[in-house]
């Protein structure tokens, strides 16, 4: 074994040890001590315990092994029952090598599932239980019932609907298929088909518009002819599977609309399919049903939840006209300079709107437990508090500054932000809060605006109580009875009363005019609902009632407009319910397109139980692909304290409704943990040894049984229809960049594929950029424009960890230029390098198709990188496939955040359009203006389509502010996008501006070449 190989593995394997001396305490009082292998499963160890116990006293007093379970103290100092006996010893994370055997209590199936869910989501169920929070408990009960009921419904689905849940068809938009069909209507598709369990294959000739049923009928006819079989088989009993994938071709769609076949046609590749008998798929269906039924039986034996408490006598909130106030009592664990004075600022917000003037406490001296004991009165009546009123509090220090020279002016003070915290004024049951609340704060991060309050921040308390400042406040008992926010019936009744009033006053302000004409807005301009909500006076309950009434009859909006209402500026529950009502019309493929944003805006929800959470869970449990990516989008942020409770609870609920999915997800999680350990080893090893030696050590490590087992036969987190079968250790490597990403290659039955594992880089910005490129591709194809985009797979899986799809048969422009030039100095200026490379990869007639692929994809990426403001473009992050497809990688800078050096902007062109690109587009001829003009027209057409959908892009980026990306944290970061898409301008004006940018990119391309030359000098690309 290479030195240091075990340093990256579990603590029990340090110093090369593969065995650990374990101590066992039996229920009979007997003590055992013997070595176990770190790779042993708990089940194996239990058998060893029984074997050793046979020679000890009181063995006959022991029951069957299944009647017992091991317990331990884990690394977080908690007692853990090891229900999952397939776990290996190295993965248990013991505090000490001691296991205690105890009698198993309760339902084993339920305990096993609970344990697996805890391991999978990275948060133990005891952490939820320890909250002792009624809202958490009620949410868990409700969501578990909700998800398990949907799991039961799913098992009762008819065949076609069950297939749609498990194996959603991956389709191209109809428009691009129709456009493609015009050009190849006379062409035939050659499809390679074989039958499950047989190696015999048939090549069948089909029309591109033929349905899968027609292909199945032909395959059975061919089989019958070849094998001279008299047996009559029905095509309805078979489904076509894509070789090497859990992806099927079925339904009433033409063959060329399936993305796999469409891609094969464009690449000149023969599609390979397998005829799978339904009996094979039914076994898989029965396995799912068996697991769900086990859980159902277990659940039925548990006690029903307690009945909800009846509401006590209440007073009407709208009848209380006295001002709202709270008591600021004291602080705790405050850490500040002694020269400061401590002050608390508090404000009431509805979304981004400040409801009344901010109030400020008295100044007190710095100490760890400062006392204010002060009443803070707000300039708003209790009756006017909107349902989503949010109390935002900031703790800051005041530093007294005296000038060096004595003057008559007073000393100036400056504010030093220390901490902030938010809490809702009403609880999750609509009741106005009363009593004392201890609020653990979040550390303040100074912003450009200098705001102390953070209304956009979470309403969750900081879970790291011991290391953060705390504030104790008290909500008063304004009335002896609880005060509840009025239900919707009260709002509608009040609206009727208000509507009967005559409006005699004249509204001069634009806001008041818009409010007065709200009925006309509803009828004629329903998409202006966000504007109307923003000008609503949420601190006047009469206006709130009017708005709630309007929402009940507002026409549903298309998703492009409805998505905007999920921003934190629109917290009203009726507005958010209306939004979800609009989003329910989204098809699964459309919902999947926006899933990243929908997960992020969960952070804006004020309570655990909300329409958005239920909507996402409902759709995730009705479509396995959506469920897969919902899981990873949530799981990747479980390390973020402000969302770990909410996301953990949603993950727990999802797993309860997808019990059969847990096994695959746990396997993926285990593989990712091994990849991280491997990457840590590579990072440490590369500092001590040569690259060659570290690579060899890495391969030796991969070949260990535990690594090969964990990293093989894994459903790809990037694409759940692909299984990563056999890891090819000898083809694996690590890359040169700072974080030493792993390059892992897999061999499947019909193909080889690769993934890149990154540890240390935040991939969320890459995910967002690729999502936008994919959306552009869909919008273009919907209008019949296929620009051969390649939005490769990219997924964030944890704290600065994630996976990227390897695009096979491709190389960087830098490598192509370098390998076709004599020196680095001339490489960037060799305009023939790209065309010569394409000629070498596409001999004869194939070259025309390769140049076409290059032309279309180059047009697409020129427009995409300009609109998104992609920065840091050099010859090492622009790649070309051997088929001619050009694509960009590494999106560390966007929205116009271009790289500079020594204060000089290195990127001075709107997008990359160099003369060697033009040389390929013009097929190597300088006078081929017809080809270039077609390229220009493609760019202009693509740009116009994006401008027509500009609002959608702006809304999606705005919702991603919740992600906290460094280059997308405020509204001003989105201004670049508004400018590049020419929002508010006519199509003619927008196109005129784009033409200027296009000509600028072409004219100034020599600057790009100089930049590339400097990059080539700085980096050895060979």
Automatic annotation (TrEMBL):
<dbReference type="InterPro" id="IPR042236">
    <property type="entry name" value="PI3K_accessory_sf"/>
</dbReference>
<comment type="pathway">
    <text>Phospholipid metabolism; phosphatidylinositol phosphate biosynthesis.</text>
</comment>
<dbReference type="InterPro" id="IPR003113">
    <property type="entry name" value="PI3K_ABD"/>
</dbReference>
<dbReference type="InterPro" id="IPR011009">
    <property type="entry name" value="Kinase-like_dom_sf"/>
</dbReference>
<dbReference type="InterPro" id="IPR016024">
    <property type="entry name" value="ARM-type_fold"/>
</dbReference>
<feature type="domain" description="PI3K-ABD">
    <location>
        <begin position="16"/>
        <end position="105"/>
    </location>
</feature>
<protein>
    <recommendedName>
        <fullName>phosphatidylinositol-4,5-bisphosphate 3-kinase</fullName>
        <ecNumber>2.7.1.153</ecNumber>
    </recommendedName>
</protein>
<dbReference type="GO" id="GO:0016477">
    <property type="term" value="P:cell migration"/>
</dbReference>
<feature type="domain" description="PI3K-RBD">
    <location>
        <begin position="186"/>
        <end position="277"/>
    </location>
</feature>
<dbReference type="GO" id="GO:0005829">
    <property type="term" value="C:cytosol"/>
</dbReference>
<keyword id="KW-0418">Kinase</keyword>
<dbReference type="GO" id="GO:0005886">
    <property type="term" value="C:plasma membrane"/>
</dbReference>
<dbReference type="Pfam" id="PF00792">
    <property type="entry name" value="PI3K_C2"/>
</dbReference>
<dbReference type="GO" id="GO:0046934">
    <property type="term" value="F:1-phosphatidylinositol-4,5-bisphosphate 3-kinase activity"/>
</dbReference>
<dbReference type="GO" id="GO:0005942">
    <property type="term" value="C:phosphatidylinositol 3-kinase complex"/>
</dbReference>
<keyword id="KW-0547">Nucleotide-binding</keyword>
<keyword id="KW-0597">Phosphoprotein</keyword>
<dbReference type="Pfam" id="PF00454">
    <property type="entry name" value="PI3_PI4_kinase"/>
</dbReference>
<keyword id="KW-0808">Transferase</keyword>
<comment type="pathway">
    <text>Lipid metabolism.</text>
</comment>
<feature type="domain" description="PI3K/PI4K catalytic">
    <location>
        <begin position="728"/>
        <end position="1006"/>
    </location>
</feature>
<dbReference type="InterPro" id="IPR036940">
    <property type="entry name" value="PI3/4_kinase_cat_sf"/>
</dbReference>
<feature type="domain" description="PIK helical">
    <location>
        <begin position="480"/>
        <end position="657"/>
    </location>
</feature>
<dbReference type="GO" id="GO:0048015">
    <property type="term" value="P:phosphatidylinositol-mediated signaling"/>
</dbReference>
<keyword id="KW-0443">Lipid metabolism</keyword>
<dbReference type="InterPro" id="IPR000341">
    <property type="entry name" value="PI3K_Ras-bd_dom"/>
</dbReference>
<keyword id="KW-0963">Cytoplasm</keyword>
<dbReference type="GO" id="GO:0016303">
    <property type="term" value="F:1-phosphatidylinositol-3-kinase activity"/>
</dbReference>
<keyword id="KW-0067">ATP-binding</keyword>
<dbReference type="Pfam" id="PF02192">
    <property type="entry name" value="PI3K_p85B"/>
</dbReference>
<dbReference type="Pfam" id="PF00794">
    <property type="entry name" value="PI3K_rbd"/>
</dbReference>
<dbReference type="InterPro" id="IPR002420">
    <property type="entry name" value="PI3K-type_C2_dom"/>
</dbReference>
<feature type="domain" description="C2 PI3K-type">
    <location>
        <begin position="320"/>
        <end position="476"/>
    </location>
</feature>
<dbReference type="InterPro" id="IPR035892">
    <property type="entry name" value="C2_domain_sf"/>
</dbReference>
<dbReference type="GO" id="GO:0043491">
    <property type="term" value="P:phosphatidylinositol 3-kinase/protein kinase B signal transduction"/>
</dbReference>
<dbReference type="InterPro" id="IPR000403">
    <property type="entry name" value="PI3/4_kinase_cat_dom"/>
</dbReference>
<dbReference type="Pfam" id="PF00613">
    <property type="entry name" value="PI3Ka"/>
</dbReference>
<dbReference type="InterPro" id="IPR001263">
    <property type="entry name" value="PI3K_accessory_dom"/>
</dbReference>
<dbReference type="InterPro" id="IPR015433">
    <property type="entry name" value="PI3/4_kinase"/>
</dbReference>
<comment type="similarity">
    <text>Belongs to the PI3/PI4-kinase family. Type III PI4K subfamily.</text>
</comment>
<dbReference type="GO" id="GO:0005524">
    <property type="term" value="F:ATP binding"/>
</dbReference>
<dbReference type="InterPro" id="IPR018936">
    <property type="entry name" value="PI3/4_kinase_CS"/>
</dbReference>
């Amino acid at each position: 074994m290479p030195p240091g190989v075990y340093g990256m593995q579990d603590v029990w394997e340090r110093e090369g040890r593969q065995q650990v001396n374990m101590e066992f305490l039996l229920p009979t009082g007997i003590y055992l001590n013997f070595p176990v292998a770190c790779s042993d499963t708990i089940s194996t160890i239990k058998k060893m315990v029984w074997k050793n116990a046979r020679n000890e006293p009181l063995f006959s007093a022991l029951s069957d092994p299944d009647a017992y379970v091991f317990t331990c103290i884990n690394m977080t100092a908690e007692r853990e029952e090891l229900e999952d006996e397939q776990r290996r010893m190295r993965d248990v994370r013991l505090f000490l090598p001691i296991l205690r055997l105890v009698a198993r209590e309760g339902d084993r199936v339920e305990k096993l599932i609970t344990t697996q869910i805890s391991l999978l989501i990275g948060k133990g169920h005891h952490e939820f239980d320890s909250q002792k929070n009624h809202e958490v408990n009620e949410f868990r009960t409700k969501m578990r019932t909700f998800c398990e009921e949907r799991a039961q419904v799913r098992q009762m689905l008819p065949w076609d609907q069950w297939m749609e849940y498990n194996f959603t068809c991956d389709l191209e938009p109809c428009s691009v298929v129709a456009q493609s069909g015009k050009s190849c209507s006379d062409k035939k598709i050659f499809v390679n088909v074989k039958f499950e369990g047989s190696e015999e294959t048939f090549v069948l000739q089909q029309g591109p518009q033929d349905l899968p049923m027609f292909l199945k009928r032909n395959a059975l006819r061919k089989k019958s002819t070849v094998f001279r079989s008299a047996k009559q088989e029905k095509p309805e009993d078979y489904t076509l599977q894509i070789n090497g994938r859990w992806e099927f071709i079925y339904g009433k769609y033409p063959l060329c609309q399936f993305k796999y076949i469409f891609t094969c046609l464009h690449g000149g590749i023969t599609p390979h399919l397998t005829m799978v008998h339904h009996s094979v798929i039914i076994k898989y269906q029965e396995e799912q049903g068996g697991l769900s039924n086990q859980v159902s039986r277990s659940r039925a034996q548990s006690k029903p939840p307690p009945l909800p408490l009846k509401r006590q006598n209440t007073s009407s909130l709208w009848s209380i006209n006295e001002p709202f106030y709270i008591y600021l009592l004291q602080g705790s664990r405050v850490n500040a300079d002694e020269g400061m004075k401590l002050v608390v600022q508090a404000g009431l917000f509805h979304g981004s709107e400040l409801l009344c003037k901010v109030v400020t406490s008295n100044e007190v001296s710095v100490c760890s437990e400062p006392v204010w004991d002060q009443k803070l009165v707000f300039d708003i009546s209790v009756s006017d508090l909107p349902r989503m009123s949010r109390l935002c509090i900031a703790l800051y220090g005041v530093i007294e500054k005296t000038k060096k020279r004595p003057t008559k002016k007073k000393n100036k003070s400056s504010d030093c932000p220390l901490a902030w915290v938010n809490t809702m004024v009403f609880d999750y049951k609509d009741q106005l809060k009363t009593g004392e609340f201890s609020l653990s704060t979040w550390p303040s991060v100074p912003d450009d605006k200098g705001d102390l309050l953070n209304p956009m921040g979470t309403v969750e308390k900081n879970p790291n109580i011991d290391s953060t400042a705390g504030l104790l406040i008290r909500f008063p008992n304004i009335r002896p009875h609880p005060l509840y926010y009025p239900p919707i019936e009260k709002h509608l009744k009040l609206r009727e009363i208000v509507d009967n009033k005559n409006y005699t006053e004249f509204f001069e302000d634009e806001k008041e005019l818009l409010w007065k004409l709200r009925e006309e807005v509803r009828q004629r301009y329903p998409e202006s609902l966000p504007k109307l909500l923003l000008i609503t006076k949420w601190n006047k309950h009469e206006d709130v009632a009017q708005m709630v009434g309007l929402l009940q009859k507002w026409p549903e909006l298309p998703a492009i407009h409805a998505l905007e209402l999920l921003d934190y500026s629109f917290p009203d529950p009726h507005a958010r319910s209306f939004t979800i009502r609009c989003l329910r019309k989204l098809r699964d493929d459309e919902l999947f397109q926006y899933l990243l944003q929908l997960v992020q805006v969960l952070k804006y929800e004020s309570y655990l139980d909300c329409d958005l959470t239920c909507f996402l869970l409902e759709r995730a449990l009705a479509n396995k692909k959506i469920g897969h990516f919902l899981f990873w989008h949530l799981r990747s942020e479980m390390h973020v304290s402000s969302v770990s409770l909410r996301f953990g609870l949603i993950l727990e609920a999802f797993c309860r409704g997808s019990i059969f999915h847990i096994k695959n997800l746990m396997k993926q999680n285990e593989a990712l943990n091994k990849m991280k350990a491997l990457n840590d080893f590579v990072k440490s090893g590369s500092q001590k040894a040569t690259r060659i030696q570290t690579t060899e050590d890495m391969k030796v490590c991969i070949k260990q049984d535990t690594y090969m087992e964990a990293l093989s036969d894994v459903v790809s987190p990037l694409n759940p229809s692909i299984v990563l079968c056999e890891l090819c250790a000898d083809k694996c490597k690590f890359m040169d960049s700072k974080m030493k990403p792993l390059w892992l290659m897999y061999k499947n039955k019909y193909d080889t594929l690769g993934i890149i594992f990154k540890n240390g880089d935040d991939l969320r910005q890459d995910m967002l950029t690729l999502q936008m490129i994919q959306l552009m591709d869909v919008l273009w194809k919907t209008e019949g424009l296929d620009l051969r985009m390649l939005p490769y797979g990219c997924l964030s899986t944890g704290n600065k960890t994630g996976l990227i799809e390897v695009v096979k048969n491709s190389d960087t422009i830098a490598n192509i230029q370098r390998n076709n030039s004599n020196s680095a100095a001339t490489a960037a200026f060799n305009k023939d390098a790209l065309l010569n490379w394409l000629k070498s990869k596409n001999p004869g007639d194939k070259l025309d198709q390769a140049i076409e692929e290059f032309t279309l994809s180059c047009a697409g990426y020129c427009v995409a990188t300009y609109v998104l403001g992609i920065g840091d473009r050099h010859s090492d992050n622009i790649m070309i496939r051997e088929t001619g497809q050009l694509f960009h990688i590494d999106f560390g800078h966007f929205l116009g955040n271009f790289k500079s050096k020594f204060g000089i902007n290195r990127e001075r062109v709107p997008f990359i359009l160099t003369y060697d690109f033009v040389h390929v587009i013009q097929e190597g001829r300088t006078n081929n203006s017809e080809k270039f003009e077609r390229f220009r027209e493609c760019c202009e057409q693509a740009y116009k389509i994006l401008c027509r959908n500009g609002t959608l892009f702006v809304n999606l980026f705005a919702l991603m502010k919740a992600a906290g990306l460094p280059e997308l944290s405020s509204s001003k970061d989105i201004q670049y996008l508004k400018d590049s898409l020419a929002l508010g301008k006519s199509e003619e004006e927008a196109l005129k501006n784009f033409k200027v940018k296009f000509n600028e990119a072409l004219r100034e391309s020599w600057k790009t070449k100089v930049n590339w030359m400097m990059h080539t000098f700085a980096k050895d690309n060979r």
